[in-house]
Design goal:
Length: about 260
């Protein structure tokens, strides 16, 4: 069985966010997909199966299956465009979060995702203790989004991962206005065995509605300030978030199953 490893939200190897992509003829048992994800030990392993005119797509972390992942969707689209659907301009993925549409735009792949809600919640002492800095605002949907005033706080943040696990939300995103970008962010998901996710499309489904409203603009140039780092271009269109980025192939392998 073919497995591809791609770095997403970058055009430079060893940057962006790694994802493994397994292109299947038919679905494997869930336990086997979970075992493959744990063996890879990336933040995401994506599994995809041709389904009519589109593809079914699922995402597994080392801890569990999740309902939406941006960088692994980008990696999967990149693999399909380059190895399986070379003449296609677009691909539709059928997922737990509905149909996701990916379109090739020159060197970038544009992805159409549902926007998350910005449900404001009180800032707590537990948030400050977990992140090492007190946010000015907090919002909760699938993930918890904490907003800070200064980019340097985000870049220098050293959260207490055990305390992050105790906060509400599947993951915890932190964001601030940027100096060279409209916004910067980081994302932590210790609940799913991912202390820090290098570059995350899904959290920008919250970040984009927040910053487009605050900055009075419909599109953003965003940077996720992990050690690997990655760039995203994000646009809010009604209740959808359009996220685009580049990707590069690191490896093509054969799984001996």
């Amino acid at each position: 069985m073919k497995q591809y490893i791609a770095d997403a939200f970058t055009d430079t190897l060893f940057h962006g966010n790694q994802a493994a992509v397994c292109v299947l003829d038919e679905w494997l048992p869930d336990k086997m997909m979970m075992d493959i994800a744990r063996e890879n030990n990336f933040s995401e392993t994506a599994f995809t199966v041709k389904a009519g005119e589109g593809y079914d797509l699922r995402w597994f972390t080392p801890g569990d299956e999740i309902n939406l992942c941006g960088h692994a969707t980008l990696a999967t689209a990149y693999v399909l465009f380059n190895f399986y659907e070379k003449d296609a301009d677009g691909i539709v993925f059928h997922t737990m979060s509905g149909d996701l549409f990916c379109v090739r735009r020159g060197e970038r792949i544009e992805m159409d995702f549902p926007a998350y809600s910005l449900n404001e919640v009180p800032v707590t002492d537990e948030m400050a203790a977990a992140m090492g800095a007190t946010p000015k605002e907090a919002y909760l949907d699938r993930d918890l989004l904490l907003v800070y005033e200064d980019e340097d706080i985000i870049r220098n943040m050293k959260p207490d991962i055990e305390k992050v696990k105790q906060l509400k939300g599947m993951g915890v995103g932190v964001t601030a206005p940027g100096k060279d970008y409209d916004c910067v962010s980081r994302f932590f998901v210790p609940e799913l065995s991912i202390p820090e996710d290098p570059v995350t499309g899904s959290v920008h489904c919250m970040i984009t509605p927040y910053w487009t409203e605050r900055l009075g603009k419909s599109s953003l140039k965003a940077y996720q300030a992990s050690d690997r780092g990655g760039e995203l271009v994000c646009e809010l269109k009604g209740d959808r978030v359009i996220i685009s980025g580049k990707a590069v192939i690191f490896a093509v392998s054969e799984l001996m199953l």
